[in-house]
Amino acid sequence: MTSETFIEIDHVTFGYDVSRPILSDISLNFQRGKVTSILGGSGCGKTTLLRLIGGVHAADKGRVVFDGEVVNVRNRERLYRLRRRLGMLFQFGALFTDLSVFENVAFPLREHTTLPEAMIRDIVLMKLNAVGLRGAAALRISEVSGGMARRIALARAIALDPELIMYDEPFAGLDLISMGVAAKLIRTLNDVTGSTSLVVSHDVPECMAISDHVILLATGGRIVAQGTPAELMDSTDPETRQFVRGEPDGPVKFHYPAPEIGADFGVNV
Hints:
alpha/beta, 10 strands, globular
């Protein structure tokens, strides 16, 4: 692993069911200080990859290496120290609905630090200001829109100034304006803080606009292609071209494999 490599996925195999691996002997490197998007259809292992990096699950085979240190889910002290260095934006925000906007962002600071309340207040307002929501600090979560909730979750994810920020479907369910705001925030926060960002998404245009590197996965965790956004957009590989251009016809079929229709009803056709 080079000094530029922040996260290494080294021949990793993992499955929730041992008979059906989600990721099979996959190897990837994520570069320090870059925005890397992981694209692919549902069920290809994108979110699973983030969970392995965060130590939610242990690889069945292979290693996940975080800044030179192997992620060991059995060593709680080391795992806690690792998680202190990363922030996670969950797919639907995972905000505490019974807490205010301010209290949601303050939560990780109170959980992981011994900072005085005055300093926590300043940090929370600074993070909310970074996502354009300092004026919403006193609101309840029920009073904010879906796009605002996603930005609040992002403020919480960066509260501890993480070195790694992982985004799980940050554009899901957002209107076009909110989607553009979220994409710009991801790029700006990465550049301003010097963090490393991993973005899991189905949204090709937004990811292509903000990423330094793009990885395209297929079912089984197979790496279809990787490179700069321009390289993937210009690819002549049929599977890559179909995904990034959203073409209905190609190697990826609409129908799940099935027997002839007549076989379902016990008749010959």
